[in-house]
Design goal:
With 340 residues, this protein is mostly helical. It has a two-stranded antiparallel ribbon. A two-stranded antiparallel sheet has the order 3-4. It starts with 22 loop residues before the first strand and ends with a helix.
């Protein structure tokens, strides 16, 4: 019997869950993402004379840093065979909490910590629903998505809160050195730490094991529920932190904050090669996918092309990425059957 060909990210080849990322036609998925990112960068530079300026490139980073910051722990969740649909609603609720904290006279550090704390609380609620009550994560977080967003609307209504303490605008509008934004530096540091944790620690190896086969992982002594709860809490904290950045950048709080962002964040994760079946994925892929989508979005805006075009392209691309493993598996099975 001839060996099955390499399959793309998301394949059901469970025995290779902790090996290197899959290849498409001999190419690593991250290599293809890197090539696509470079191509988009070149096209943007050719189409717009303003694109290559340091200021413009710095502004381009705002198109993806806040979402990508949440995509990092989301990738860990998906690798562990879970998902959180409520991240954007957590951001809205955290922003409302920060708005009221600012109204009460809290200083900048306290307001920022409040936003992160609200994210942790929401993430803990999600984690307990999944680990203690055994509610499937997609069901639980769809429910809490409506709950958290509803609470934000219930508290604030149609009002907008704009009064924040001095210095709060630095989180979303400040620059560390020259045109290097604070948001981009924070995301780079978070990506480096997340990558090291996933790919160079026992914690990361156990996440792959949980995603590959939770039952086997539990029988081998891994505290599966503790890991899942921790991942939901980390994802909630990242959502709260992203809310701090977004609220600071916009300079206002409203309950409609980040509407639809959960789909864009999940798109970054799946496009980055993280398997929807769990047990496979890399942080490098997620970072490249985030940069790629950010450059595409920014390039479209420079050309005055409606954002709906990006939604169509990304949606079609995700369908192809998710469908390819199924097609590949059926093709491999058919070849194996013919060779017997």
């Amino acid at each position: 019997m001839r060996p099955a060909p390499h399959l793309p990210p998301g394949s059901s080849d469970r025995g290779a869950a902790t090996r290197a990322p899959r290849r498409r036609g001999g190419w690593r998925w991250e290599t293809l993402l890197g090539a696509a990112t470079l191509m988009v960068f070149i096209v943007n530079a050719l189409l717009s004379p303003y694109f290559l300026s340091a200021t413009t490139l710095s502004d381009a980073s705002f198109n993806f840093t806040e979402k990508a910051l949440v995509a990092l722990p989301m990738a860990l969740l998906v690798i562990a065979k879970e998902i959180d649909i409520s991240v954007a609603a957590i951001m809205a609720l955290a922003s409302v909490a920060m708005g009221y904290g600012a109204m009460a006279g809290w200083d900048t550090p306290a307001v920022a910590l409040l936003g992160v704390a609200v994210g942790v609380v929401c993430g803990t609620c999600n984690g307990l629903l999944v680990t203690a009550l055994r509610v499937p994560s997609i069901v639980a977080t769809i429910g809490t998505m409506s709950l958290f967003r509803g609470i934000a609307y219930g508290i604030l209504g149609d009002r907008v809160m704009k009064h924040y303490p001095a210095g709060f605008d630095y989180f979303g509008q400040g620059y560390v050195i020259g045109t290097l934004s604070f948001e981009l530096v924070l995301f780079a540091a978070a990506a480096l730490i997340t990558g090291l944790v996933l790919h160079a620690t026992i914690f990361g190896r156990r996440l792959y094991a949980i995603g590959t086969n939770p039952t086997t992982a539990r029988m081998s002594g891994i505290a599966v529920d503790r890991y899942r709860l921790a991942l939901f809490m980390i994802t909630g904290a990242a959502s709260g932190l992203a809310s701090v950045l977004l609220t600071s950048r916009l300079g206002s709080t409203r309950p409609s904050l980040a509407v639809g962002w959960e789909l864009e964040i999940i798109s970054m994760v799946i496009l980055g090669g993280v398997s929807v079946s769990g047990g496979r994925g890399t942080i490098v892929g997620v970072v490249l996918a985030a940069v790629l989508l950010g450059l595409v979005t920014f390039g479209l805006s420079l050309q005055n092309i409606p954002g709906i075009v990006l939604s169509i392209v990304v949606g079609a691309l995700l369908i192809v990425i998710v469908a390819l493993p199924v097609i590949g598996a059926r093709w491999a099975a058919a070849r194996a059957a013919r060779s017997e």
